[in-house]
Structure prediction request, 276 residues.
Amino acid sequence: MWSLKSWQGRFLPHSGSDRLRSYAGWCNAVEGNTTFYATPSRETVATWAEQTPADFRFVLKLPREITHSHRLADVSGLPEFLRAIEPLGDRTHALWVQLPGSFGPGDLPVLSRFLRGLPGHLRYAVEVRDPAFFHDPHRLEEVLAGVGAEWVPFDTTEFFRTPPTSDAERDAWMKKPRMPLRTVALTDQPIVRYLGRDAVDRTVGGWQRWVPVVAGWLREGRSPTVFVHTPDNADAPALCRRFHDEVRALVPELEPLPVSPDPSSLPEAEGPPTLF
Prediction:
């Protein structure tokens, strides 16, 4: 996710050819949500690698045919996906296995078989959306720990604390899952997804519980990745940097984020935007 229209001219150039490079000047990780809908070509992925530094982190969502249509039972499309992302090399921080809300604790044997059949040189992070997993987390934790996979919490507690007040919030209210809060890391590379509100003060207030948690992980020698969302994501890059600053105030040895580009220096449009 690095081509949001509302970011153009603010965080990214208007031209579609160099947006990822500009995004990497604001943040050092990205959710690869587009791979959920279509597997990109190796040539496209090679341009992603070329536009990002060697330590940039891609958390790439597995295709929906695997996770949702076939519910992990048919992985025939996985080799094509893995070949496509090879140009990223170590930039592939984790493959993100986002499961549908209908995938519950009774499906754990399927998840276990799937994870154990994956290539061992990559890291995996699983996001579940059935609240039953949170009521008795130990069974899922055992499955994930057996293969060194992480459990990705999606913190929507602040978002659902009060009713929506805008069209963007109402749309997200219908689409986003109401998930219990989870702040436990299973591996040395935890991943957190957080959803705030339109109002900056609400978003910042809601993430305050995460600042000491993430700082604690860093002090333990872990290397967390945190993604900050709002209903329209219009200010997400700036909010991510603000969250990073708050964590760095507690852990001064944390490396600073890249120096963000001056928006006035961004080039004007040269053609239609493209993802693939």
Summary: The chain is about 35% helix and 10% strand. The longest helix spans residues 236-250. The radius of gyration is 18 Å.
